[in-house]
Amino acid sequence: xxxxxxxxxxxxxxxxxxxxxxxxxxxxxxxxxxxxxxxxxxxxxxxxxxxxxxxxxxxxxxxxxxxxxxxxxxxxxxxxxxxxxxxxxxxxxxxxxxxxxxxxxxxxxxxxxxxxxxxxxxxxxxxxxxxxxxxxxxxxxxxxxxxxxxxxxxxxxxxxxxxxxxxxxxxxxxxxxxxxxxxxxxxxxxxxxxxxxxxxxxxxxxxxxxxxxxxxxxxxxxxxx
Length: 225
Fold this sequence. Notes:
Blueprint lengths: L1 H21 L2 H4 L3 H19 L5 H24 L1 H8 L3 E5 L2 E2 L1 H7 L3 H10 L8 E6 L5 E5 L8 H4 L10 E5 L2 E2 L1 H6 L4 H10 L8 E6 L5 E5 L4
Antiparallel strand pairs: 1-2, 1-3, 3-4, 5-6, 5-7, 7-8
């Protein structure tokens, strides 16, 4: 029992030192290769604790080796832009000039609902407020708002505030959201009329359509493939 206790303390200290040497950036915006190293370090630390037949030094050497590899890769990324693109990838533009980049969403296997969810976590509930949305290599979504939609407090403009409402999806990837229509007391005929105003003949041609709190309808057509 004492042996397990001592081995656990030693391995904890080794892992803690390794994570500290990897740098603060490893824990804030984890790249894929960094996540692999952290998971492997955790696994290598657990094996000597569970199996007393494995020398403790084996786990220490393995963790130290991964630490050296991690530092080496980080240094290469720092010095070479080409290596960084190969190892970490490059950012992806999901929304450009207020329009959803359909081909990029398809390539990354991201659906529109996921994109909207990420936007809401950044306090942007409407697509019309967003100029660019960039998926960083760390997996985080960066939002660049339109110039007229940059955040301002009510105190700055000395204006009365109104209750915020989340825009409601009407069509996603050609599929009409009938539940949302019923919730808003809207009909399919009304939706067809709105599509005609945007020069759309069939809902199957629509990538994304929604109605905002001001009852304005936004429609983006699919890109011809």
